[in-house]
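User: I'm writing a tutorial on reading structure tokens. Could you give me a worked example: one chain, its sequence, then its tokens, then a sentence or two explaining what the tokens reveal?
Assistant: Sure. Here is the example chain.
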Amino acid sequence: MQNSSIKVKRNILSFIAILLVSLCSAQWTMAASEKEILGNLSAVRPDLKFEFVGESVLPGFYAVQVEGGPLLYVSADGGHFFDGNLYQITRKQFVDVRELALNDTRRDVFATRGTDDMIVFKPAGQTKAIINVFTDVDCGYCRKLHNEVPQLNAMGIEVRYLAFPRAGLNSDSYDKIATAWCSDTPNETLTAIKNGKRTSTSVCEDNPVADHYSLGGSLGVTGTPAIILMDGTLIPGYKPAAELAEFLGVSAIN
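And here are its predicted structure tokens:
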């Protein structure tokens, strides 16, 4: 009976030892794969910055984010990759895997992010819903959405603007939108610029436009207006105020 108990204990210890070796081996392989993947990519395109995201939902592939570019799915040996959208097949629909992950990221970002560096248009009364809008002053649909901000405010929807000059940080669009953020009256200046009124550009050194632009890129923003809800949902492009209110569950009749 005692010998049997000793044998069981030895078997358990052997199993634990094998398990620990397997885990260490798996961790070493993962680290080696990361180093090899980034090394191979950087050797071919040293001008690009690659960030190792981790294992993808696709077995045998890892996700690598190109800064300011697409998400790559790279084989574990670093020898092959493909880019583009990866979809999960469910019973009812095709689900964009990256968009699903970005929803969580966007939700977490705006749940903790302050509004000190945003231009905010608040309702006069109770705030019933919030939209975070990456905007550009030279975008026609951004102007169209901005013209409906009073209507959105009247329905209790708060509009929080972040800057996203589509032409980039070395452009007239950047200078114009940065002028709004540098103004002593940012709300009025932004409205004036969006309405096409001539305003002398005044770009201050500590403006947040570059940070907003980088944040937008990391959250999947590729164009404007890009509306992000507090639950992380991204609505690309213009939507009429009434349609936004319906989507947010806010009554269009005040």
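What the tokens reveal: The chain has two domains: 2-84, 102-248. The helical segments are 2-44, 97-112, 140-147, 149-154, 172-182, 186-194, 209-218, 241-248.
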